[in-house]
Amino acid sequence: MQALPTSARLVLWAVCIPLLLSGIGYWEYRQYAQTGLSAEQQQMLAEVTDALEAVRENPRTVITIDGQQHSGFSASLRLQQIAKSIRGDSATRAQVAAVVRPASIAAMVAGVLTALVALAGLYGVSAAGRQALQSRDALMRLFVRWRNLLPTYLTMHMGLLMITVAGLLVARLGVAYQVVILERAGSGEAKFQMVILLVAGLVLWWGATLLRALYTSLQVLHDEPNEVMGVSVSRQEAPALWAYVDTLAQAAGAAAPAHLVVGLTDGFYVTGHAMQLVPSGQQLTGETMYLPLTYLTLLQRDEISAILAHELGHFAGADTAYSLQFSPIYQRLVASLHAIYGRNNSGSWADLPATTFIEYLLERFDLAVKHWSRVREFAADQVAARLVSGEAVARSLVRVTALHDVVNTVLNEIGRRPQEAGSDLVQMLHDAVREAGLKAPDFATEVATMHPSDTHPPTLERAKAVNAPVTDAMVQGVLVLPDDQAMVWVRSLFADSQGLQARLLADFKGLAREQNEQVRKNLADTVEQAQGSVDLFERKSNVWLFAGFTAIAFAACAALVVHSFSPGKSFAGFQTLILMTAGLTVMLIGITWWFWRRSVVMVMQLTAEGMVVPGWPQIVPWSSVSDYSCTVVNGSNMVMTFDLDPAAPRLQAPHSNLRRITYRPAKNKLLVGMSKAKGMDMDAMHEAVMRYLSGWHARQHLQSM
Predict the structure, then answer these.
(1) Helix (H, G, I), strand (E, B) or coil at 110
(2) Domain stops at, among 518, 553, 586
(3) Contact, 270 vs 287, CB < 8 A?
(4) Domain encompassing residue 279
(5) Under a CB-based contact definition with an 8 Å cutoff, are residues 160 and 110 in contact?
């Protein structure tokens, strides 16, 4: 089902199913379209009337009814009962039809309206998605309109669908009343009618529950400020930086940001969303420019100018104001979809009409969202090219992409062991670039200038758009550190650059220590859960099963022997049958003994270091296991597959432990097949293996921290 396009799934669930229900309503209506006597009933009533008249004229007239002959008063009474029954059936049918017909009509009309509403939604969203490509204002206006209409639209669609089901339920209630109560149908027919009513009632209850859940999930969510690790620098703390940004903003025709935030972990971006700085907790509102000190210290001056001019170009194009309005609405809808998926009472099939329409809505607008994001990125690049140069724009894109891995490696190393890291972040970054060197980027990912909610065009396209195509010479030029003058200029932007760097590094280390402590706690808990050992034995269920078969076979064999010696019988006449049952008994004894052996001999023992197989000279260490999976066969057997590291030492497997463990060195696999484990179900056995495997990895992680 998921392989179908969203539009096809939407047509199936929102159009075809309501039309199918409407067709069922039409069928119910046709069953009671004729409320009077049918032609067959009219003919039967006429025959009964004629026979009754004949009996009245001649009481000796003999009438055969249901194979029995009647005359006189008996015939008259029986004929009157038949006539009353025929007229009563018609009256009963008319009473039931008074309920079934209106209910069926309601179901038919509501089903058709449900399909029409779905088709209108399909067309409306598709048309709105196309119109959104005309302008960013159109995208905003139309998306907001559909976001606001969505609760009403889905409620209307699901409400009409519930009316359809309710109509069919009422119609079926009328039919069941006629069949079960009035006509006193047999127990089979009565149960069938009750099952239909139960199913319809459950569908109606599901619909009411889903409507309430949808209404809750689609409510407007409150915006939360973005948490950002960084420091807001005032004009007194960074006078040269503020003056530089003011100059660029004026040249770009944009207002300067209200805040400048310097951090370590993100790329360059501007935003109009509320921001909460970590760890200080300072709340910022208004337009903010974020500058990563990690990249500032590794870029040339004109590259920094190009990046800042690009970000200010977003201010000039009112991009942050647009994002401030559009992004929360878009994210709320995505959050609503996740809320529906994440409900405890959510059923994947039950939510499909609503979730499929929301997915379709997002898909139709997604093309326009990406289109205008790319358009605005190109426009911001043009601002940067005009204020600085196209070559600086292209070079900054290439250098930032090349620096990404080195910067992340340094930060990850500091975060892993903050107590051992140095105090000069800038020096650490420069040393890492000198030691590891920069690799020519493949332009597969965009990192440094990526806004959290925008889509950027590929670097090569952006460079070409500013008339500065990326060349091999340009790439080789950015793979070296910037000159010392660039570093001197960056330091001059701040009143106390060393103090700012120390503060940012201390904040980063503090957060890393807190996170590491939590990670250590979680890892220690995982290790603690994998202490001791677990012995895996197979249950004796197969032993008792085949022991029962053995007892039956033995009893049959003994009975045959006793019977063969009874009077008038000969042993020779039963010899073949006795030998067969005796052979079957012996075979079942062997199978019973085999399963008994399997139940008393341990399959393996799970320990903190690995798996211990009885009779194997060495443990199967968890360090040799690169992957693990399990498969349940026939609901009573489990096959555990351990993929072994090809570099691990080869195992010594002298036996298969009663054919339950298979080692395949050529494929680096260890297969363990067993029936249900003693004292645990299949899930518990799988969780036990995962617990010990995870415990070993957690212990290794703890030792590396």
Answers:
(1) helix
(2) 518
(3) yes
(4) 226-325+364-518
(5) yes
Q: 682 vs 158, 633, 634, 639, 677, CA distance in Å?
A: 40, 11, 12, 10, 7
Our count of domains for the chain comes to 3
Tell me the pLDDT tens digit for each residue of 65-98. 666 666 666 666 666 666 656 555 555 666 667 7
For residue 481 the two structure tokens come to 């550190």
Enter the DSSP assignment of 13. Answer: I
Q: How far does the chain reach from its first CA to its final CA, in angstroms?
A: 46
pLDDT per residue as tens digits for the range 616-631: 999 999 999 999 999 8
| String of DSSP letters for 483-538 | PHHHHHHHHHTSTTHHHHHHHHHHHHHHHHHHHHHHHHHHHHHHHHTT-SEEEE-B
- Residue 179: pLDDT over 80: no
Cα of 306 vs its chain's centroid, Å: 41
Q: How many CB atoms lie within 10 A of CB 249?
A: 21
Helix (H), strand (E) at residue 245: helix 239-252
Of 450, 407, 444, which Cα lies nearest the Cα of 429? 407
Cβ-defined contacts of 117-121 (< 8 Å, 24+): 117/153, 117/156, 117/157, 117/160, 118/10, 118/11, 118/14, 118/15, 118/18, 118/157, 118/357, 119/15, 121/14, 121/153, 121/157, 121/357
On whether both 213 and 232 belong to a single domain, the answer is no
Cα–Cα separations (whole angstroms), residue 305 to 36, 167, 594: 90, 69, 80
> What tokens appear for 561 in the block?
């022997």
Q: Which residue has the higher pLDDT, 487 or 392?
A: 392
Task: Report d(CA 264, CA 296) in Å as an integer.
Answer: 10
User: In the chain, count of helices (H) and strands (E)?
Assistant: 20, 16
Do the domain assignments include residue 359? no
Tens digit of each residue's pLDDT (9 = 90 or more) over 635-694: 788 899 999 999 988 998 899 999 999 999 999 999 999 988 888 888 889 999 999 999
Which of 202, 169, 200, 176 minimizes the C-alpha distance to 190? 176
- For residues 502-510, give the mean pLDDT: 93
Same-domain status, 291 and 420 = yes
d(CA 167, CA 159): 12
CB 459 within 8 A of CB 378: no
Phi/psi of residue 186, each to 5°? Answer: -65, 170
User: Residue 683 belongs to what H/E stretch?
Assistant: helix 682-704
Asked if pLDDT for residue 36 goes beyond 60, the answer is no
Contacts with 477 (C-beta within 8 Å, 6 or more apart), sequence order: 395
Say how far apart CA 456 and CA 307 lie, in whole Å: 14
Buried b (16+ CB within 10 A) or exposed e, 576-590: eebeebbebbeebbe
